Fold:
Amino acid sequence: MTPASTDLTILALLSPFAAAAIAPVLTRYLKHNAAWLLAVVPALIFLQFATMIGPVSEGAKILPALHWVPSYGVDLSYLIDGLALTFALLISGIGTFIILYAGGYLKGHPQQGRFFSFLFLFMGAMLGVVTADNLITLFIYWELTSITSFLLIGFDHLRAASRRAALQALVVTGGGGLALLAGFVTIITVTGHMSLTELLSDPEALRGSEFYLPIFLLVLGGAFTKSAQFPFHFWLPNAMEAPTPVSAFLHSATMVKAGVYLLMRLHPVLGDTELWTTVLPLFGGATLLVGTILGMRQTDLKLMLAYTTVASLGLLVMLTGTSVNKALEGAVLYLLAHSLFKGALFMVAGTIDHEAGTRDITRLGGLRGAMPVTFVAASLAALSMCGLPPFIGFIAKEILYEGTLEVGSGLVVTAVAVLGNALMFAIAAAVVLKPFFGPKVETPKHAHEGPVLLFAGPVALSVTGLVAALLAHTTGELFVAPTLSSLLGEAAHVELHLVPAHVGMPLLLSLVTVALGVGFYLSLARVRGAIAGALTAIGWGPDKGFDQFVAGLVMIATAVTRGVQRGRMQTYMTAVFAITALSLLLPLALADGLPEMPSFPEFRFYEWGIFAIAVVGLAAVLTAANRLTAIVSLGIQGFAVALIFMLFGAPDLSFTQFMVETLSVVILALVMTRLDLTPADHRPFAAKVATAIIASAVGAGFMLTLMSITQRPFDTRLSEFFAEYSRVIAHGRNIVNVIIVDFRGFDTLGEIAVVVLTGLCVLALIRVRTRTTSEFDDGAGEEALAKPQDLSNRAVHAPVLEAKG
Structure:
């Protein structure tokens, strides 16, 4: 790949973020025409990736990269192989029509520019997920998809349902993202590989590791939450509260397949193990059945399609979990087919809602005359979803049935696939037949065909599903085979044909699927009633459980807050010092790090004098009649330490200690004189003993820690570095000054800023005075001032103070 082509690829991957910045401005000036110009961005991205189809289909891997944080091994590095290219083409291709569709769907909306911006941010994040080579970069893009989907789902933020759906999606997918981060960190630690390219070249690095189980579970946590696998499936249907362009883009063609992408990407290093081939088919099959059963109950077009998306994701996970080559080929084909027909059908549902005023199939009928173009697009997409020829969905169904029959537990997996596909057949039939056929029904709005911006996407995607099947051999060579090669970790050969070569079990299973699907459709009302009754009897579900979980979390947080934040400074300080003591003493005790007790040195007479000063200061603090005297007496300890520094040949440090101690005592004394302090400590004896124990523990902890450190061999490397380079680099002879001013200059600047702010706060405290009683309207102020105040509870009972000057 030439440098110019590499630059273009990186530009294509980053361009959606630039488009997000300019979208609001263009929309403000071009109004509804902005969509046409903005759609050029994903169209150009699609064309750039289309130039890679030839090389990638021949086995090439394209690895553009930019240095980002090289010191940590984090680069904006990308891996474009068959799997990444297929997803990138789907994201950019469907994204082009989504931008156009949004231009028509939200025409005249005051926040349309903001909506375009969110769409482009999501597009850029999703392109990054499917092409990122560096694991940390992949995670950053992964979390960015969660954040941008939160913004898109909650776009209509004035509605409580939208806010709840957005928060729910963020919590579920964000929580899974944290699990994925832990998984990636473990992978990097175990293998030493930070890039997918290196990891995939060493397929046994994870399968043979003792950490395979935790890595497997953590990766599944990220993949299952993002791709809405049971029991995390509930967030995806709720996300239909978002505008329809969001539903069509995020929840059918791109974001919800990120988990499937991750499982497919890591299949060469995590797949084909007993755990993989057990857990994935189990949860994938359960998700397939749960999604289709719940979808049969719905009457809202978007919810029907949303639940079938859940089911389709379950089917993809189930097929990926088999680790059978033919089943994986079926997964790739179904991935392609689903993106095309589901994106089209979501846009059709939005167009019907936009032009007829409702999405409820019980209130729709006879729209094929009023909306002929939309009807044709819906029919083509639904036929592909039903798995009927001559559409790509038919070929996908044939191949996946052939693959499930090769699985060890093939009968169970095949039965689940047939039942799930039959239920999806019935839902797809209902999505088209109920709104467009039958007698014409009076709708809230006068139904008519939408503008070209609304039907361009459904027509293009549904026709593409037809063309992909008619050119099945080319589709297999250019898209399916390279993608399958990425899943297998080796070159794969694919032969696709629209017409089955012979009558076999896959074709018979397709006929069974159609027959069951027709039966389910004809008994749709009864099936819907039975499912509704069963769900009512069950009552509780994951969606309600999420609300209970959040409510319980809030209750626990409230209880903890009330227990910890009790409004007493004495409690806070006691907790801080107790935890400090434990953090110092426990590691020393548990790690057998207690130092050896040194022998008592022979003091000279003046050293005994300094020691005596410290002891006198300690006695003065303990016997002080009031807090102000104790604070002043505490300065004696600091002066004693300063004298020790001077005796050991550190006059500059000694001078600093004298200044700091003097200022500390003066400032604290000034502050204390402004407070109404009780003259003595009236706490019970037990409280005093507890405080004394904690104080002694803190002192002992610091003493033992310092002794332990000083007894270790001294590492001279840092000292040698400063001695060697202070003169050469910083042109200074005083090494301490050079360290403070040059080597850690920004740290010193921060410390100065903190000292200045502290000084300003102290100045404000010193100049504060209590309001006089004349400033109060009644005698309440005098009463408050006359009442004794407890320092430990001043946050609650302090008198009203006023800053003067």
